[in-house]
Amino acid sequence: MEQRVSLITLGVTDVNRSRAFYESLGWSGAVQHEDEVCFFQVGSLVFGLWTQLGGHGAPGLELAYNVRTPEDVAEILDEVRRAGGTVIRESAVTDWGGTAGAFTDLDGYVWEVAHNPGWPLDANGVPHLPRTT
Length: 133
Hints:
alpha+beta
């Protein structure tokens, strides 16, 4: 597993309200999917706002590690197991067309490991959101 973080996603109760907040701070280039999830390219990583992590009492936080191939997801999860982490979701094809799984580190922080064919990684492992107009 390379030493990098691809995404930081915050759980929010209202994506549109949260997006407007960050845009009022001068952020731009958001990629939004319905009223559920929104992403901003922020330098070498992606910052997400997602209702699936919020609205259940306390906001959530999820880190993500994007990989180059679908097969890499299972390989990273196996590496995590060997290191003592806990796999909480095995590698599987997602409804958004990628492959993903998840684990917790030794202190319970959740990481998603994902291959997203719509977000190519550059040579340094940086994901790049599709350009919007």
